[in-house]
C-alpha cells in the first residue's frame, strides 16, 4: 500500500502490475474501500494491466474530511493521484457511487479517460426524497455508527440469495462497511445528494464504455444500466447473472471475463 498527501488529505492506494501496462483506475463504492476490487486487481495484473485502487477520502485508511465531500472532490482527488503517478490517461471505472465518481471524473477531466467502466450505478441527479434520505442517513451514521446500517443493507448490497450462499463474500462486505469511519460515510452521503445529472454529460462521452450490472441488483436494477447504455454513444452492457449490487465480489469470474473482453477488444494497450 502507498500513501500521498493531496488537497489537504492523505490518500492511501494500491498500485499493482507492470508500470508499462495500460493503467486501470478502479473506484470503490459506499461504504467500502479499495480491497473491494481485490478479485479484479488480481485478474487484471495477471493480464498485464497496471491497476490503481485508492481508498477514497473518508474511506479505508485515507483521511476523513468531515462535513460534506462532493463527487467533484473525489474526482479531483483522483486526477491528482494520476498526476502523482505520472499517468496521463487511464481506464476509469467504479461501482455504485464509484460509478458516479467515474462519470464525474469524465465530466471534469475527459482528456484523462481512455475508457469508462460503470458497474451498478445510475445517472440521474438525486430526487428531493433521495436528498432527504441521504441527509437523514448521514445524521444516523454519525449518531449510531455503521454496525446497524451494515446489517440492514447487506441483503441489498448482495443478492439476497447470496448472503447465506456466499458467507465469505458477505463477511468481507460486512467487515468493510463496519470498518468505515461514520464521518467519512456521512460526508460522502451529503455530497452525493448534490450530484449533477449525468444524463446531460453521457451523450458527449466519445470513449468506449462498459456497463456492468448484477441481474438482481436491488439498488440500481438492469433498467438503470440500460438507460446509461442508450445515453453513451459507444457503450456495451454486460448483465452478470446470480449477482446483486456488487457483481465484482459476488461473481468475480463472470465480471472479470466481461471486463477483460472489453479491455482487449475495445481498449487496446497501445491506444
TrEMBL record:
GO MF assignments: hydrolase activity
Keywords tagged on the record: Hydrolase
Domain of life of the source: Bacteria
Pfam family, one: Abhydrolase_1
Span of the signal peptide: none
GO cellular component terms given for this protein: membrane
Domain AB hydrolase-1: 23-247
PANTHER family: AB HYDROLASE SUPERFAMILY PROTEIN YCLE, MONOACYLGLYCEROL LIPASE
Name of the featured protein: Alpha/beta fold hydrolase
Species annotation: Streptomyces antnestii
Source taxonomy: Bacteria, Bacillati, Actinomycetota, Actinomycetes, Kitasatosporales
Amino acid at each position: 500500500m502507498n500513501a500521498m498527501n493531496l488537497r489537504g488529505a492523505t490518500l492511501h492506494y494500491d498500485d499493482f502490475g507492470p508500470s508499462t501496462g495500460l493503467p486501470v483506475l478502479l473506484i470503490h463504492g459506499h461504504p467500502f474501500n479499495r480491497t473491494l476490487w481485490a478479485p479484479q486487481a488480481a485478474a487484471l495484473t495477471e493480464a498485464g494491466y497496471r491497476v490503481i485502487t485508492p481508498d477514497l477520502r473518508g474511506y479505508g485508511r485515507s483521511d476523513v474530511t468531515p462535513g460534506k465531500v462532493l463527487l467533484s472532490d473525489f474526482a479531483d482527488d483522483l486526477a491528482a493521484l494520476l498526476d502523482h503517478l505520472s499517468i496521463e490517461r487511464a481506464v476509469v471505472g467504479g461501482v455504485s457511487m464509484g460509478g458516479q465518481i467515474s462519470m464525474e471524473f469524465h465530466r471534469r477531466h475527459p482528456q484523462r479517460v481512455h475508457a469508462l467502466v460503470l458497474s451498478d450505478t445510475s445517472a440521474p441527479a438525486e430526487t428531493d426524497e433521495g436528498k432527504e434520505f441521504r441527509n437523514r442517513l448521514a445524521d444516523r451514521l454519525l449518531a449510531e455508527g455503521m454496525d446497524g446500517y451494515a446489517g440492514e443493507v447487506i441483503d441489498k448490497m448482495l443478492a439476497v440469495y447470496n448472503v447465506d450462499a456466499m458467507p465469505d463474500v458477505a463477511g468481507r462486505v460486512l467487515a468493510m462497511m463496519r470498518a468505515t469511519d461514520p464521518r467519512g460515510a456521512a460526508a460522502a452521503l451529503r455530497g452525493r445528494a448534490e450530484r449533477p445529472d449525468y444524463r446531460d454529460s453521457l451523450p458527449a462521452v466519445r470513449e468506449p464504455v462498459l456497463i456492468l450490472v448484477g441481474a438482481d441488483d436491488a439498488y440500481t436494477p438492469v433498467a438503470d444500466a440500460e438507460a446509461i447504455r442508450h445515453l453513451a454513444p459507444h457503450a456495451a452492457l454486460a448483465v452478470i447473472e446470480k449477482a446483486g449490487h456488487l457483481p465484482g465480489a459476488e461473481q468475480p469470474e463472470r465480471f472479470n471475463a466481461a471486463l477483460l473482453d472489453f479491455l482487449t477488444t475495445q481498449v487496446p494497450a497501445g491506444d
